[in-house]
From TrEMBL:
It is an enzyme of class 2 (transferase). Residues 3-178 form the Formyl transferase N-terminal domain. This is Phosphoribosylglycinamide formyltransferase. Pathway: Purine metabolism; IMP biosynthesis via de novo pathway; N(2)-formyl-N(1)-(5-phospho-D-ribosyl)glycinamide from N(1)-(5-phospho-D-ribosyl)glycinamide (10-formyl THF route): step 1/1. Its EC number is 2.1.2.2. It comes from Holzapfeliella saturejae. PANTHER family: PHOSPHORIBOSYLGLYCINAMIDE FORMYLTRANSFERASE. It catalyses: N(1)-(5-phospho-beta-D-ribosyl)glycinamide + (6R)-10-formyltetrahydrofolate = N(2)-formyl-N(1)-(5-phospho-beta-D-ribosyl)glycinamide + (6S)-5,6,7,8-tetrahydrofolate + H(+). HAMAP family: PurN.
Length: 187
């Protein structure tokens, strides 16, 4: 079973979906840049180790990622799943994990990349948005797409309705996509 690290900055509902999916992986570590993130509590609940590191306590982004990389090495991490991790991945990690870092984005890329994929699609008034799983590269939500699913946005939707609909799709699509990649030997 591959050793996997999940990186998350917030609530961690996608981490939770992955942890509960009985995937053929060893969820070895949760990495967070936010000491108060709910994902940390969730990780402890699943008896998964956590590593919290704030950028403000590091010399720079290279130092930050080097410290994370040391942790990943200590836990023999084979691949990384970003689940609401709100930082750009820099070359230190990208070069150590080529094609081994995967992200979930709450929009149908290349539409609405960035920090607020749900809110941006909502404000744009589209009738359809979605969820994308993709490999991470040096850009913002630009890496090779692995899987996508469309999600309707209805006239009567409040932002929260659309967000809930998207999260529901995320919680199913992320574990399923990881399972498929492992079964195909691509991870
Ligand atoms: C998810 O909707 C995820 O797609 C999004 O953050 C949310 C995290 O929710 N990620 C991004 O916007 C990345 N640019 P969670 O903490 O409950 O999993």
């Amino acid at each position: 079973r591959p050793n996997v690290a999940v990186f998350a900055s917030g609530n961690g509902s996608n981490f939770e979906a992955i942890a509960r999916a009985n995937l053929p992986i060893n969820l070895a570590l949760v990495v967070s840049d936010k000491p108060q993130a709910k994902v940390i509590e969730r990780a402890h609940h699943h008896q998964i180790k956590t590593f919290v590191l704030e950028l403000k306590n590091c010399l720079d982004k290279t130092d930050y990622e080097t410290q994370i990389l040391n942790q990943l090495k200590q836990h023999n991490i084979d691949f990384i799943l970003l689940a609401g991790y709100m930082k750009i991945i820099h070359p230190t990690l990208l070069e150590a994990y080529p094609q081994k870092i995967i992200n979930i984005h709450p929009a149908y890329l290349p539409h609405f990349p960035g920090k607020d994929g749900i809110g941006d699609a909502f404000k744009a008034g589209v009738s359809e948005t979605g969820v994308t799983i993709h490999y991470v590269d040096e850009g913002v939500d630009t890496g090779q797409i692995i899987a996508q699913q469309k999600v309707p946005r209805y006239q009567t939707d409040q932002l929260e309705d659309l967000a809930n609909r998207i999260h529901k799709v995320e919680h199913q699509l992320y574990p399923e996509t990881i399972r498929n990649l492992i079964e195909k030997g691509e991870l």
